[in-house]
Write a structure and sequence with these properties.
Layout: H1 2-12, H2 21-38, H3 58-69, E1 76-81, H4 87-100, E2 107-109, H5 110-119, H6 129-138, E3 141-145, H7 155-171, E4 174-179, H8 188-194, E5 200-205
Parallel strand pairs: 1-4, 1-5, 2-3, 3-4
Helix pairs in contact: 1-2, 3-4, 6-7, 7-8
Bound molecules: adenosine-5'-diphosphate (ADP) and magnesium ion.
Length: 215
């Protein structure tokens, strides 16, 4: 965290005695790359500013932006919709926006979260399963992208996500989930929490895939 703070500070301030223009540019790139990876982003350019206002994406865009502003009472967002319409982009934009405000929240992918939980059951694991679950429940900010992984999540995996959501809902903790699945394919215990307007938003990103539109 401290290291990342330095990276961002160094990116924004002008260096007093640059070694040489070439080296400075290379170092800057290295730092940006380090930051990108540590935040779990596919690109540091996936911001709210670069998100184009495509028909059907308006509600999703506003919900992510509002939540990232830190000014909402509700703290949980479940965004669902077809592949390619910007859900991951909006998760990344949120992570970048939080980062600009000094809050570190990486974008996690459901499959990696599940792998980390399974790894606690292997010999030599530094954390127990329940310690890691506590961590996912208690982290101040949590973004999990691609929940359900196209429907291939096992019932054990769904159980893990449910437990995390239920706990975070009770504590009103900042939580974003995205999925390509429809709400009918998600466990009721999860969807139900996100329907509570006092604490959450359940938003369909109804845009078409952007991938074919890229230049
Ligand atoms: N409205 C948009 N404006 C700009 N880029 C977009 C938009 N929607 C999606 N993209 C880009 O299209 C690609 C696919 O989007 P992604 O966020 O991965 O979709 P999803 O997570 O919904 O499957 C990414 O490179 C993303 O940055
Ligand atoms: Mg995605």
């Amino acid at each position: 965290m401290e290291q990342i703070g330095k990276i961002l500070a160094n990116l924004s301030e002008s260096t007093q005695t640059p070694p040489s223009p070439v080296e400075t540019e290379a170092t800057r790139e290295e730092r940006r790359e380090q930051l990108r990876r540590s935040l779990g982003l596919s690109s540091l350019t996936n911001t709210f500013d670069t998100f184009k206002q495509i028909k059907g994406t308006e509600l999703a865009y506003s919900a992510f932006k509002e939540l990232a502003s830190g000014e909402t009472k509700w703290q949980m967002l479940l965004c669902y919709g077809k592949p390619g319409n910007g859900k991951s982009h909006l998760c990344e934009a949120t992570s970048i926006e939080l980062y600009k405000h000094g809050i570190y929240c990486s974008v996690m992918i459901m499959s990696k979260v599940m792998d980390s939980l399974k790894n606690t059951m292997k010999d030599g694991s530094l954390l127990t399963h329940s310690e890691l679950m506590d961590k996912y429940c208690q982290m101040k900010y949590l973004i999990i992208d691609d929940v359900g992984m196209g429907g291939s999540g096992s019932s054990w995996e769904w159980g893990q996500i449910e437990d995390i959501v239920v706990d975070r809902y009770r504590e009103n903790r900042f939580t974003i989930l995205t999925t390509n699945l429809d709400t009918t394919q998600l466990p009721d215990r999860i969807v139900d929490r996100f329907r509570d307007k006092s604490k959450a938003r359940l938003i369909l990103n109804n845009g078409e895939s952007y991938r074919g539109k890229k230049r």
